[in-house]
Design brief:
The structure holds two protein chains of two kinds. Chain A is an alpha/beta fold. Chain A contains twelve helices and 15 strands. The radius of gyration of chain B is 20 Å and the shape is globular. Classes of the chains: A alpha/beta, B mainly alpha.
């Protein structure tokens, strides 16, 4: 390519230069005052969550719970005589963001601990950074078993997926159901994992799996599988899928004249479950992290405060978000300091902490050992049945 | 750029020098710097396809995914092949980056050869579909972590390697399009029929642009994987491709300098807006803007596009020659 007129081009560049340097200057000024933002009268705690983007509904719920907990702790005088300052950053449900944000929280805001993320894929991105910086991290609701395997500074306060399989199996046996049919979503790790654990436990307890059928997420017609299940005459059907398909399965099962109850896990919780299924799911049972209709005083207190502040009843994620902040505050109190090493040890030593999602004990793998609740569906609403301990 | 090779060497030396100070840079700013570098590579390489050759591609994140997963898989499996010393694992890392880029280039060749006979909207749909296929394959590949994502990647990417990659991408693309041979790209963009009539093999040029673009996208993917240490198929979705396209269009199609600036600006902007709430001297209402920073960000994009539809730098190019 021949060179036309170099001087002209560089002149153009120079004319652009002032605006370029101006924008650099503006960003430099923005960055500057931050170095002194940290005040020693408060305990900075970081939270990263998805307030916007694909998983925003989960992220906002969990954030509301966490914020409520911090408000309560500060109203009661804070911890170690200091108030907790919650610094919340939005990761836009976007990969790449959690790592940046957590680096910001650690290096910029000097947080003593990090709470965060519902989605396991986001938590897994932030976890190695917390581990490398030796900052304790508590995830409220990431159920992927790999999360806490990242290192000894990563904790979770929810149960992991396989546990729910055991819970349902225990519940089914207690109801005296011997013959169970299973309808698994073969495309979802979650569903396959639940099926495995359920089968193992149910057979060990002397039950019988009379039929196993599979479907794939996104399917709309389940009549073939359901007809086969009907012929096996089970006492109940275990459907460990997500709410979208479960509602259709329930509807089609009733149309085929299957009257036995359906059983499931926390994947059932979703807005459209009852809208689509209508009355088809009445008398069915599923396990969950938390029930707003649990009559215990602790839960009712939480539900009342949450409802008063946000105008909506709390869901699983808000309860877990709430507990994550409460457990952290409790650990800071027990450690008597906010230094990372003793704080980590204090979190690891959490035992029988009474949260709104039940008595929480952290095991040696930093996973929570805690009860699940069984809910039933009646008249278009979820109702608390019982608590199943591990 | 009167002496391109000199500029390249200067940039690499500069990257090495800055890299020496990386331990004193605040890790958050360091993260942003590396992200800028990776985005610049992505935008500059996509600019070769969209800006210089005029082929609209919505599949750049797919090529990035190929590079990211291939290199991460390789360092995960063969990372300590030559021992555990830093130079030995570093060598594997660099090899993994190159091979990751080549794997992406191969993917570019696969999708390019049949689909580049299409034009405009049709090509956009095909490339979009292709990147979704890559995502789908990864989601079902057990050794790559499937839907759970691939973690435990060792952090190798540093300032030097990232900006070495940037220098290489900018140098590669600029010298290519400003060479006699590279005029073919511009000819294809300006008038495909006329180019064909002049004896230019338009399909060959299009595929070549695609393959080179995919190589650098794969390289960026490898850098990304070894910096963030965790990759997930959802991180390479359609939205990621659109992000890169926005950088190219805002920077001005066919203007490498503009595209570099746009990539840097679009990476910094959300972070600057994030900090609004922490700036002590700002009035209270302005700080609350930070809560709605994504709305602000989108508004800024609209304003920028309205005022500079020709891109940030307009017709100005790095090279003095009029392309």
């Amino acid at each position: 390519m021949p060179v036309n007129d170099p001087s002209q081009a560089s002149a153009k560049f120079m004319s652009f230069f002032p605006s370029l340097s101006a924008s650099v200057l503006v960003s430099a000024v923005m960055f500057l005052p931050l170095a002194s933002a940290f005040s020693s009268g408060e305990i900075p705690v970081g939270e990263f969550t998805s307030l916007t983007g694909g998983s925003a509904s989960f992220g906002q719920s969990s954030h509301k719970g966490t914020a409520l907990a911090v408000e309560e702790i500060n109203a009661a005088g804070g911890v170690l005589g200091k108030k907790i300052r919650l610094i919340t950053e939005d990761d836009q449900s976007q990969a790449g963001q959690p790592a940046t944000i957590v680096r910001k929280l650690i290096s910029q805001d000097h947080v003593v601990a990090i709470l965060g993320e519902v989605a396991s894929s986001k938590t897994l991105e932030a976890a190695p950074i917390c581990q490398q910086n030796q900052i304790p991290m508590i995830t409220p609701a990431s159920t992927n078993p790999k999360v806490t395997e990242v290192g000894d500074h990563v904790f979770r306060i929810c149960f992991i997926d396989p546990f729910q399989g055991t819970v349902i199996s225990k519940f089914a046996r207690a109801r005296g159901w011997n013959r169970i049919a299973i309808l698994t979503d073969a495309k979802q790790d979650y569903s396959v994992g639940l099926t495995e654990c359920f089968t193992r436990d149910f057979v060990a307890r002397g039950g019988e799996i009379v039929r196993e059928q599979k479907y794939s997420s996104g399917d709309k017609d389940f009549k073939a599988q359901l007809t086969s299940i009907k012929a096996a005459q089970p006492d109940a059907i275990f459907v460990p899928g997500y709410y979208g398909e479960v509602s259709l399965i329930a509807k089609q099962a009733r149309l085929l004249g299957i009257k036995v109850p359906l059983l499931g896990g926390d994947g059932w919780v979703g807005d459209s479950l009852l809208k689509v299924a209508g009355k088809s799911l009445d008398g069915c049972f599923f396990s969950a992290h938390f029930s707003a209709s649990d009559k215990s005083e602790r839960v009712q207190n939480f539900v009342a405060k949450y409802q008063a502040k946000y105008g909506v009843p709390p869901d699983d994620m808000s309860a877990l978000g709430y507990d994550s902040a409460m457990i952290l505050a409790d650990a800071i109190r027990r450690a008597g300091t906010t230094e990372a090493a003793p704080l980590r040890d204090a979190i690891a030593a959490t035992k029988d902490f009474s949260g709104v999602t039940g008595l929480i004990t952290l095991d040696e793998k930093r996973n929570a050992s805690k009860p699940a609740v069984i809910l039933t569906i009646e008249n278009g609403g979820f109702h608390f049945v019982e608590t199943v301990t591990p | 750029m009167r002496n391109p090779k000199f500029c390249l060497i200067l940039a690499v030396i500069l990257a090495a020098v800055v890299n020496g100070f990386s331990s004193v840079i605040n890790p958050y700013y360091y993260d942003i710097l590396i992200t800028i570098g990776i985005n610049v590579i992505l935008a500059v390489s996509l600019n070769l396809v969209i800006g210089y050759t005029g082929q609209f591609s919505l599949g750049h994140a797919g090529f990035m995914a190929v590079g990211a997963y291939f290199s991460a898989w390789m360092t995960g499996r063969y990372g300590v092949l030559f021992g555990e010393s830093a130079p030995a694992t570093g060598a594997i890392y660099v090899l993994a980056l190159i091979l990751g880029g080549l794997a992406a280039a191969f993917a570019g060749l696969l999708v390019g050869s049949p689909s580049l006979r299409l034009r405009g909207d049709y090509l956009a749909i095909v490339t979009l579909g292709f990147s979704e296929i890559i995502k789908g394959v990864i989601q079902n590949a057990e050794p790559l972590g499937a839907q759970r994502g691939l973690g435990g990647i060792v952090q190798h990417t540093n300032f030097f390697w990232t900006f070495f990659g940037v220098a290489l991408a900018v140098y590669g693309v600029l010298t290519l399009v400003h060479s006699t041979y590279g005029s073919g790209f511009l000819a294809v963009r300006d008038d495909e029929i006329a180019a064909e009539a002049m004896g230019i093999n338009t399909t060959k040029y299009k595929v070549l642009a695609f393959v080179i673009g995919a190589f650098f996208a794969g390289l960026a993917g490898g850098l990304y994987a070894h910096f963030k240490q965790f990759i997930h198929p959802e991180g390479f979705n359609f939205l990621k491709s659109v992000d890169i396209v926005v950088m190219v269009i805002l920077g001005g199609m066919g203007s490498t300098a503009g595209v570099c600036l746009a990539a840097a600006l679009l990476t910094i902007l959300p972070e600057v807006l994030r900090m609004l709430s922490d700036v002590p001297w700002l009035p209270e209402p302005a700080r609350h803007l930070a809560d709605n920073r994504m709305i602000l960000y989108s508004l800024l994009l609209i304003v920028l596009m309205l005022n500079r539809p020709q891109g940030l730098f307009g017709r100005l190019r790095f090279g003095a020659g009029k392309p």
